[in-house]
Amino acid sequence: MTTAEPRPDPTRQTHLGMRPGELDGKWYAKYWNPVMAPLSEHVRQAIDLGPQPPPLCLGLDDAGTLNEGGYQDLEDGYSLFGDGSMHIATSTRMPGVSPDMVDWWFWWHATETQRYKLWYPRAHLYAEWPGAGEGNAPYRERYIGGTSFVDEYVGNVPGRLAIRFVRPGDLGFSEDGLDPQEATAVCARVGFSDAPLDWGHLVHYVRRVNGGAEMRSRFWMGGSHVAPRGGAPLTGDLEKVAEGVRNLGDAQARAMVVHCSQEMNHLTVFLPDIFDEFKRIEQE
Question: What angle (nearest 5°) sits at the alpha carbon of residue 138, between those of residues 152 and 106?
Fold first, then answer.
């Protein structure tokens, strides 16, 4: 992956759904399904509980403990911290899915807007990955070090994001313990695509379970996680942007729980089939 700071297309056009002809000639067109399942009941219950005590949350410095057996105090829900930050946790059962499929998806989906829209038809608008190539490396290595530019809604708020994928070891995981057939950890720094500012971290930890896999997602956003990117000075207009994401509240946290849960559940529906078809095409 290139280490140069990439930039998204400033003329990008965004819209929800697929326009006529947008999927013409795409082998994966059959996987477009704008009808999404209702929000999972366990997530509804977690949201109804409201913000949870911060001591129940996994700290960013302890993200690597997701690779340990069992479950943690907060697997679904959110918490709000005194510095204005929020922590989000969601869990997703993924029948028929393997960790390797998830690694493939995080590389494959980000290179084309239509692919990105398959994932969350009600919220995803645009995707671009400057410099991304097909490559023959293991799937995890194809996205680590890259930056995916995505436009999406979280709740009713549109955002233009830069998702910079980092090594699991950067967030405390032992990469020797992440055999992609048994477990993976998708880790990233979250920032804006149209301003040199980062404001969160994410982990999607996926492990094998009977019948498929389970994903345990964690987000740390706002507050002390806000920082300028690439040595940019935090002054003037950038300071105003930073102020807008330092203090995140209940509405943003709830919307993030819903967003993550819905997109991962929708992905689960078609991921095994689209991955198998991709592999067949690749071997032809």
Answer: 10
In a domain, 96, yes or no: yes
Range of the domain at 80: 40-63+73-283
Give the pLDDT confidence of 182-195 residue by residue, as tens digits: 999 999 999 999 99
The CATH number assigned to the domain holding 121 equals 3.30.530.20
- Structure token digits, residue 274: 């689209």
pLDDT value of position 106:
96
Position 179 in a domain? yes
pTM of the model: 0.95
**Using H for helix, E for strand and C for coil, what is the string for the chain?**
CCCCCCCCCCCCCCCCCCCCCCCCCCCCHHHCCCCCCCCCHHHHHHHHCCCCCHHHCCCHHHHHHHHCCCCCCCCCEEEECCCCCEEEEEEEEEECCCHHHHHHHHHHHHHCHHHHHHHCCCCEEEEECCCCCCCCCCHHHHHCCCEEEEEEEECCEEEEEEEEEECHHHHCCCHHHCCCCCEEEEEEEEEECCCCEEEEEEEEEEEEECCEEEEEEEEEECHHHCEECCCCCCCHHHHHHHHHHHCCCHHHHHHHHHHHHHHHHHHHHHHHHHHHHHHHHHHC
Mean pLDDT of the chain: 93
Is 112 within the bounds of a domain? Answer: yes
Q: What does the alpha-carbon distance between residue 48 and residue 250 come to, in Å, rounded to a whole number?
A: 12
23 lies in some domain: no
